[in-house]
Amino acid sequence: MKKLFIASNNGHKIEEIADILKRNSIEIELVCPKDYGCREEPVENGRTFAQNARIKAQFYYDLFHLPTIADDSGICIDYLGGNPGIHSARFLHGMNYDQKCDYVLELMKGVKDRGAQFVDCMCFIDKNGEISEYEGINEGQIAYEKAGHEGFGYDPIFLIPKFNQTEAELGAAYKNEYSHRAKALKKWIADAKERL
Fold first, then answer.
1. Catalytic, out of 71, 72, 120, 155
2. pTM for the complete prediction?
3. Does residue 73 come out as left (phi exceeding 0), alpha (psi in the -120 to 50 range) or beta?
4. Which letter, b or e, does each residue of 9-28 get, where b requires 16 or more Cβ atoms within 10 Å of its Cβ?
5. What is the 3-state secondary structure (H, E, C) of the chain?
C-alpha cells in the first residue's frame, strides 16, 4: 500500500484526515514523524498559513522522501483583527484550550460583531517533489458560551449559524464533511490523488 506522510503528530488531526480520506475511498497508509522515531521539528517562521504549511511539508519531505502533506490552520476572529490566526496554537501560551476558549469569551463579552473563520492551508509535495497548495475556509461566529464535547481546540466556541450549534456539538460527522480541513483536503483529493 502507498504511503502518505502527514507532517504532524497531532492525533486528532491524523484521525480527521484518515476519516476524510476513507469517506472519499482513498486507501493509503498514513504515517507521521513519530512512526519513524523522528523528534526533529521545523521552525514555523512563516507569516501566513500557506508559508508555514510549505515549511513543514518541505522539511519532512527532505527527511523521508515520501509524498507529504502538511497543513497550517487556525481561527481568525474579526473582533481581534484576524487574530490569533497563525498563532492559534501558541496563543495565550501556557493555557490549555479550555482556558483559551474561556479567555476569548470573556474578552468578547457584550461584543456584537462575532464573525470568525477557521482557515486551513495545505501543502502537498508529491513523489516527484512537485508542490501544490490548497485552502479551505469555514465561516462562523464566536458563540456566547462554550458548548459540546465532540471537538478539540476552539471547536466549543466556533458557532455554525446554519445549525445554531458549535463545531464541538456537531461533531466528527459534520467536521469531516464541511470543516476547513475537509474543504482543503477535498481539493487535494480532486487534484492530487494520482500523484502519490
1. 72
2. 0.91
3. beta
4. eeeebeebbbbbbeeeebee
5. CCEEEECCCCHHHHHHHHHHHHHCCCCCEEECHHHHCCCCCCCCCCCCHHHHHHHHHHHHHHHHCCCEEEEEEEEEEHHHCCCEHHHCCCCCCCCCHHHHHHHHHHHCCCCCCCEEEEEEEEEEECCCCCEEEEEEEEEEEECCCCCCCCCCCCHHHEEECCCCEEHHHHHHHHHHHHCHHHHHHHHHHHHHHHHC
Main-chain dihedrals φ then ψ at residue 131, nearest 5 degrees = -105, 135
Beta strands 29-31 and 68-77 are: unpaired
pLDDT in tens, 20-46: 898 888 889 999 999 999 999 999 999
Spatial CB neighbours of 109, under 8 Å, sequence gap ≥ 6? none
Q: Which fold has domain 3-195?
A: Maf protein (3.90.950)
For 106-155, what is each residue's pLDDT tens digit?
Answer: 999 999 999 999 999 999 999 999 999 999 999 999 999 999 998 889 99
Q: Is 113 a catalytic residue?
A: no
Residues 165-182 pLDDT 10s = 999 999 888 888 899 999
